[in-house]
Amino acid sequence: MMDMPLFRDDVALPEWTGDLEQDAIAAIRTVFDPEIPVNVYDLGLIYRLDVSNPESIEIDMTLTAPGCPVAGEMLKRVERAVLLAPGAKGVKMNLVFDPPWSPATMSDEAKLELGML
């Protein structure tokens, strides 16, 4: 499988704030699900973000479906995006399915984008 591009052409890189957690979130918001026009953060796929150790930022991420054909690539895209944040030195991605993802985890912005509000 060919690597998917890290960013969509219509998504600008974030302006960095110097706050590692906020910058990591901004970076994650540049990564979009290939089938849903919403970034993975607002889609509710990021369950945990721990920036207490910049050498190994820990991220628990799920997928909209366990059988997602681009699962491995999605985790790599989030990891690469977070590593762009100033101060980020390493990322440990954990793929989790408990609790299962549901549309209830989406932000209001995502729901509005998808016509659910």
TrEMBL record:
One Pfam entry for this protein is: FeS_assembly_P
Where is the MIP18 family-like domain positioned along the sequence? 21-91
Matching InterPro entries, A to Z?
A: Fe-S_Maturation_MIP18, FSCA_dom_sf, MIP18-like
Q: What is the recorded name of this protein?
A: DUF59 domain-containing protein
What's the source species' lineage?
A: Bacteria, Pseudomonadati, Pseudomonadota, Alphaproteobacteria, Hyphomicrobiales
User: From which source organism is this entry?
Assistant: Rhodoblastus acidophilus
